[in-house]
């Protein structure tokens, strides 16, 4: 019995996923899809990301470089792959599921300063690797059958070596039956030669083996499914079983990946190798999802007015949540990214014409704000469905204050700290019932922990659009990631002009949702609902928003 197994708990088995040749092969997607497949076999699964960069978490990273910062219920700022995992597993993960070299080293150094190492020379092996192994092994406390661990980066990178060494040691620690190594590589197609090339895969596996890790399963990212001959060749050169080479071919819809893996028998092979119960995966919901997405009954175009429009990864969860909203309404959602910095009162109409809905997503800093406010005014006046998320809510409040409530200099403290009328401001006496919890996080909180991060309750106002969207619930919980709040001193003035506060924190201090009666669908929320949307359970606000866009389009066509 391994150390992981306490009486009455499951013996967690570990699947380690590494990547070779180059980045962006879809390792996160592969990890998430394997997780979905194993879950469909009735197993309990969790997925963890180990990222080799030195940032303690991606909270301080520019989304243009790193993509979206994903937020968990317990307030961890994580890599966007955690979003894939949650969407494919359909269950929430936590700060335990995400670590970086920075957070690992931070803990090691904190221990060293505390004197925990009792005079030892602190080294990568064993101190850093032990800390990594501890982070991995802590997953077994979730009492799961399988823990999937994705190692970020590419084999051969200097940064990822401690992680690879740690997972190498784990097979020795736990035994062969509890560990499985899956390597994802690229098999490129060389057009001039008219051939698929296996050499990069061979080299990548060689590199992995030089670190002491022999992969059990190889997944080849490829334009098309690999032929049996090519699979055999790869198996031979890389010393894996002949039926342990799989393809991750390009797909039109990312939600097809679990089904494609299933068709090739990947979950079957994993189950045999890890001696998991021989059960067939129940994939009906995935089949239904993919079929629904392939045969939409209509389409809508949503304009996303934001700053990071050049990199779609910066809005990954948002993008997915809108697609889920499309699934709920049986329509295909086309996203049109509009750079708010280029939006002016003059070119507004030509930029927004043709849209069925307008969305202003989250963001930081003053750049592009005026363009967003223009777009919101346009959507409000022309009764185009509007959804404002986080910064989007804040801009909607500013727009309403300026143009409806006659407060022309209304602004956010973030954009103009000297504005007289800060309708959005930094609360100095911010009561945070969860702050303790955020501060206790292993990692260092972003910018001194001034952000409201993670899940908070919100009381819905009866009879509002928001409450209708949430199926008449009274209390909901949503995830936050922001520093500024609505300034309650302006609540009465805005209410008098017709703005409705349809969601407030239970103590009535913080505005969570605003809406405009008399408009077909105009709603802003201070939280990020996109983090909780999954393809099987589209988030009610996204389902409602896309429903409104569909209606708007139908009425336009009349
Ligand atoms: N910049 C705003 C704030 O910090 C909004 C943040 C966001 O949209 N996530 O409050």
Task: Looking at this protein, list some descriptive labels.
single chain, 558 residues, alpha/beta, 23 strands, 35% helix
Task: Give a description of the structure.
With 558 residues, the chain is an alpha/beta fold. 35% of the residues lie in helices and 20% in strands. It has 19 helices and 23 strands. The protein has a 9-stranded mixed sheet, sandwiched between helices. Strands 5-2-6-1-7-10-11 form a 7-stranded parallel sheet, sandwiched between helices. A hairpin with a 4-residue loop joins strand 8 (189-190) and strand 9 (195-196). The radius of gyration is 25 Å and the shape is globular. The structure holds glutamine.
Average pLDDT rating: 91
- Strand order within the widest sheet? 13-12-14-15-23-22-21-18-19
Please tell me what the overall shape is.
globular
Distance between the terminal alpha carbons, to the nearest Å?
69 Å
In DSSP terms (H or I, runs of 4 or more residues), the helix count works out at 19
Counting DSSP E segments of at least 2 residues, the number of strands comes to 23
As a percent range, the share of strand residues is 15-25%
Largest sheet: 9 strands, mixed
The ligands bound in this entry are: glutamine
The low-pLDDT segments are 429-448
Cα-atom Rg, whole angstroms? Answer: 25 Å
Estimated structural class? alpha/beta
Percent helix, as a range, is: 25-40%
